[in-house]
Every structure is written in structure tokens, then in C-alpha cells.
Amino acid sequence: MSPTQRPVRGGDFEVKFADIGGVTLHFDHRPTAGARHLVFINSLGTDFRIWNAVTEALGDDVSTLVYDKRGHGLSDLGATPCSIEDHVDDLSGLIDHLGIVDVVLCGLSVGGLVAQGFYARRPEMVSGMVLCDTAHRIGTRESWNARIATIEKNGIGAIADAVMKAWFTPAFHERRASELAGCRNMLSRQSVAGYAATCVALREADYTAAAASIAVPTLCVAGDRDGSTPPALVRSLADLIPGSRFEIIEGAGHIPCVEQPAALVSLLRDFMAALPSGNR
Ligand SMILES: O=C(O)CC1=CCC(=O)O1
């Protein structure tokens, strides 16, 4: 596809896959000539459709890349155990495969850890970061081990009620029942092996020391009702990153791109507009 062509959503939609170091990754790349790349990195238990409303609203103003991280959606799991650094390998390989040389990363939850890992490895590629409902360290060894034990015994469905409470506000539960059901299906239909492998990666990840070296514009964002990485935790990440900004999205849980996409888009647009121009 030439950089000026964009597949129309729902029209000539192309399913795209790439073999990155032996791991097949499922992605959707919508380049616009001259527009900076915004690369979205998913949270645990989700596939790239969570960004649909956001990329739709951004339209042709930015180039976008979404992908299913290993072990999720239509992407392979690869070898286990895996670490955040393996996820960084995937992202790095996919970006190179597509010939992208300058990115703004938008990482949600574990995706925010992948963004921090990518920045630590390839800072020259990154013009800015939006770290959404994430932290330098998420959960505890005990909490991840307990979650892994539960899903390996009883399946992901066994944790779905608790996860939906963390992902979405009570208002979403009350008023957006079909979206809630769809998101619950998305979570429950991830593979146990892929989900558990990502829990292991989360359990072992600690980017506390790396945060002080982040030297690009960074916006940390939290849903005000996030039940997984609450605003105070996201704020503690922002406090570690020199010069970063912290914003709260009202009326959102852990997944603002689904619950409050317009608010996230507005923050993303302002953030992108304020960046110095770089290589595109
Ligand atoms: O689904 C959850 O429990 C919330 C979450 C923690 C890490 C992540 O990526 O999502």
C-alpha cells in the first residue's frame, strides 16, 4: 500500500499479519503521507479493536498503527515464559518491518510498560509518549500468581466480573450493556496461555529506575474510576518522569479508549500538536 492510501474501515479492510522473529503479529497500519505515527499498545486481555473509536476519530490527521500483542487476539504467543522485553522485541520488529522511523507511543496498562521498555531501548525513535492507565510497576508478585492460578484452574471467565469492574465505571455497566458484554467476550476469549504469559511478564516488570531517564514529552493519563491502576498510581509514574504531564479522564475506568474515546482523542490531539516536528 502506498503511504497515501488508507483502507476504509468496514470497506476494503485488510487483515494484515507479519512474521516478526518467528512470532506472527496481527496489525492494522493506516499511514497518511507526512503525518506522524501514533502507535497504540494494548492492555492485558484485549485486542486492538479497543482503539477503533480513537483511530476512527483521529482520521487522516495522524498515521496509526495498532496490533495484537503476542498471546492476544490473532497474534501468536511465541515461546514462554515471556517478558516485557519480548513484547518490546515484537513492537520494535513490527515498526522496522513497516519502515516507520519516528513514533509517538500510546501504551495502555501493560502496553504502557512496553512503551517504557521500547523507549529505554530505542529512545531516538520516540518523539513522545502517552502512558495511559499504567505505571512503572503494576500489581504484586502475589496478585499475579493468584490470578494465574485462578485462570489456569477455572478459565478466564472466572475473573471476568472482577475485571469488568476495574475496566469500566458503574455508569458504563448500567447504560452500555451490549458494549460491556462484547468486552467481556473479548476478555474471556483470549487464550489462557497468552493471558497467563502476559501476567508473568507483568509480575516481573519494574521500570522504576528507567523512568527518570525519559527525556521526551510524556503525558500520563488515568481514568478517574480506574480500578486497576488508580489515578494515584499513574500520578506516581508521572512524578518519576521529568517534565511529564498528568491528566485525569472523568467518567472512565481502566479502558478510557472504549469508555471515553472522545476525551482521550482530545488529549492525544493536543499532545501531538504540541510536539516539535521530527522525522516522519
Ligand atoms: O485487566 C486488568 O486486570 C487490568 C490490567 C492490568 C495490567 C493490564 O494490562 O490490564
Automatic annotation (TrEMBL):
<dbReference type="GO" id="GO:0047570">
    <property type="term" value="F:3-oxoadipate enol-lactonase activity"/>
</dbReference>
<dbReference type="InterPro" id="IPR050266">
    <property type="entry name" value="AB_hydrolase_sf"/>
</dbReference>
<dbReference type="InterPro" id="IPR000073">
    <property type="entry name" value="AB_hydrolase_1"/>
</dbReference>
<dbReference type="GO" id="GO:0042952">
    <property type="term" value="P:beta-ketoadipate pathway"/>
</dbReference>
<dbReference type="Pfam" id="PF12697">
    <property type="entry name" value="Abhydrolase_6"/>
</dbReference>
<protein>
    <submittedName>
        <fullName>3-oxoadipate enol-lactonase</fullName>
    </submittedName>
</protein>
<feature type="domain" description="AB hydrolase-1">
    <location>
        <begin position="38"/>
        <end position="265"/>
    </location>
</feature>
<dbReference type="InterPro" id="IPR026968">
    <property type="entry name" value="PcaD/CatD"/>
</dbReference>
<dbReference type="InterPro" id="IPR029058">
    <property type="entry name" value="AB_hydrolase_fold"/>
</dbReference>
